[in-house]
Specification:
Residues 5-81 form the HTH rpiR-type domain. InterPro entries: Homeodomain-like_sf, HTH_RpiR, RpiR-like, RpiR-like_SIS, SIS_dom, SIS_dom_sf, WH-like_DNA-bd_sf. This is SIS domain-containing protein. With 289 residues, the protein is an alpha/beta fold. It has helices spanning 7-14, 20-31, 41-48, 52-61, 67-81, 85-93, 101-119, 122-133, 148-161, 175-180, 198-209, 247-263, 265-282, and strands spanning 139-143, 165-167, 187-192, 213-219, 231-235. The chain has a five-stranded parallel beta sheet.
């Protein structure tokens, strides 16, 4: 077995050799990776609908002595993933191939896109798009320190597609008034990638208490907010930089927008025509001469 392979990689590679119960367990872990396997063995077995011995057998098939050994390795991987920009830079700087940064960065971004689009379940994506297209639901969006820009971009364009779309501030003193307007069935789109922020989790929990449905856009290591999300869309984000790349998140956002637009075109077309008329009246855009 490749010593550099992650636990996630090893689990996916072993799928074909697992029993039905072990596959059921592995699928549950991968769907909620890595959060599902950070609790007790009893909690994991109950959540995945298998027995404790099944958990132990899967761990052994992956090359571990048992669940404690597996969980220790998983926690070590998670700790390595939640690194600061300084540590991340040092890791990428070691053993860098002798090619230009443009090539190295492009290779990483393209690989992220391929991995992201290859692992997202189409049914999950379509279900999230259907929620966002439902005219009976208001849509709210928020992000963290880095991902707030992604939430703002999402809201800016989604406002053109459909009505009742609101960007939530990262300032906690603005949440209570926003939550007053959040009703059961409304949708909260959450953007949260490592290092996961307590404020994002807190607002997610409060929104769920209001009855909101959460669509989470996160990385492949899963924000803690995943425990409260109805739909989770995980992206690959690693890049040869002190910071992670959000390109795959951007592509996912634009694809979601396109899907919602297709579902709501009868309404969206009229909104866009009215919007263009308002832009023309206000002379918002410069004319080419």
């Amino acid at each position: 077995m490749d010593a550099t392979a992650t636990i996630e990689d090893r689990m996916r590679a072993a799928m074909g050799d697992l029993t039905r119960a072990e596959r059921q367990l592995a699928s549950h872990i991968l769907t909620h990776y890595p959060v599902a396997a950070l609790g007790s063995i009893t909690e994991l077995a109950r959540a995945s609908g298998v027995s404790n011995p099944t958990v132990v057998r899967l761990c052994q098939k992956l090359g571990f002595k048992g669940y404690p050994d597996y969980q220790h390795a998983l926690r070590s991987e998670v700790e390595a993933m939640l690194v600061s920009p300084l540590a991340k830079h040092d890791r990428w700087a070691g053993g860098v191939p002798d090619t230009h940064i443009l090539n190295r960065f492009a290779d990483a971004v393209v690989a992220n896109l391929q991995a992201t689009l290859g692992q997202i379940d189409h049914a999950e994506f379509d279900a999230a798009a259907a929620l966002l297209a439902d005219p009976g639901r208001r849509v709210f969006a928020m992000g963290g320190r880095i991902t707030h820009a992604m939430a703002e971009y999402f809201v800016t364009l989604m406002k053109n597609v459909r009505p009742n779309v609101t960007l939530l501030s990262g300032m906690s003193n603005t949440w209570p008034p926003a939550l007053l307007d959040m009703a059961a069935g409304d949708v909260l789109v959450v953007f949260d990638i490592r290092r996961y922020e307590n404020s994002v989790l807190q607002l997610t929990e409060m929104a769920v208490e209001q009855g909101a449905e959460v669509v989470l856009v996160t990385d492949r290591w899963m924000s803690p907010a995943a425990a409260h999300a109805r739909h989770v869309l995980a992206c690959h984000i690693e890049a040869p930089s002190a910071w992670d790349s959000t390109v795959s998140l951007l592509v996912l956002v634009e694809t979601l927008l396109a899907s919602v637009q297709d579902r709501t075109w009868e309404v969206t077309e009229g909104r866009l025509k009215r919007l263009e008329a308002l832009y023309a009246r206000s002379r918002f855009f410069r004319r080419h001469r």
